[in-house]
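For reproducibility, we list the full input for the adenosine-5'-triphosphate complex.
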Amino acid sequence: MSEAAREESPTHDDTEERAAIAASIPGADDLTPLAQAVAADARKRITLAGRVVPRPPSTRVLTVANQKGGVGKTTTTVNIAAALAQAGSTVLVIDLDPQGNASTALGIEHHSEVPSIYDVLVDGDALSEVVQACPDIDGLWCAPATIDLAGAEIELVSLVARETRLQKAVDAYVSERRAAGEPVDYILLDCPPSLGLLTVNAFVAASEVFIPIQCEYYALEGLSQLLKNIELIRSHLNPRLHVSTILLTMHDARTRLSAQVAEEVRTHFSEQTLDATVPRSVRISEAPSHGQTVMTYDPNSSGALSYLAAAVEMAERGAATAQEES
Ligand SMILES: Nc1ncnc2c1ncn2[C@@H]1O[C@H](COP(=O)(O)OP(=O)(O)OP(=O)(O)O)[C@@H](O)[C@H]1O
Ligand SMILES: [Mg+2]
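The corresponding predicted structure, in tokenized form, follows.
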């Protein structure tokens, strides 16, 4: 959709009406734990379904990173991206993991013949040459990763400007889309679980870091290493880089461990941590095997509603920051 068309279709702001309906659902005290969970989901559904979020004044580029494996980086990237696109924003996901999990979850072809992010990083191709539209969601695109990317860590070492190759491609793509009157609102970079050159490229290309933290024992281990690396990149390669967003994933409200991890993260990172948390959910883990995000696979599930809540919060916090700065 063009910028002009978007501006011509302002959406009715019904936030207050939604809040009133949501408030009429019985409170937690009167209910059993299962009924409490159902009521909480119903409240979220009423408050969030079909919401249109504010679009940022300029493209927000976020690196989703945590060198710990399996904490929900890819799941968070694709579901936040899908939720933002469904809420009226334009979003590009760049898959920087040779495993290609983000490409799979978005239903994007990524066998070895497909033009991919490898061609951008190693051969200097334009991002627009490799980007594919996500089949299920309007306004969502993906630059896929193929298995070729596994060699890129080594191939990049001998190339000139090895740390800034992605940044150049991203900046060119952002300008190109703006010039075409179809600006991209969010670019989310899904990183592999390591701090190699692919992740360094992502840190240099982005201005924000989005850290998913799994609510498990050892969750905070390695976090200080990640923060140290971000600081190094900031002082040497990218002064704009900062941790803007932290999301607690695989949260289990019934366990004391989840509550302890959540409390510790909120104590250390009170500003960055989103109020929304993502529960452990079978629907979330099933969705990728259908080539889908949970946002289309089961939009009414608690997992989808939580990712929607997180995306709305992220967009609204960004809009508030942009207003303060202007
Ligand atoms: N909220 C959740 N509930 C249930 N399963 C989840 C949830 N989030 C992620 N998973 C599952 O946990 C596994 C790891 O998630 P994911 O692939 O997103 O992590 P990752 O940090 O990207 O991993 P890697 O470091 O390998 O890239 C996957 O099988 C995924 O389906
Ligand atoms: Mg991953």
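The chain has 14 helices and eight strands. Strands lie at 60-64, 91-95, 132-133, 140-143, 186-190, 208-214, 242-251, 273-279. Both points were considered when choosing residues for closer inspection.
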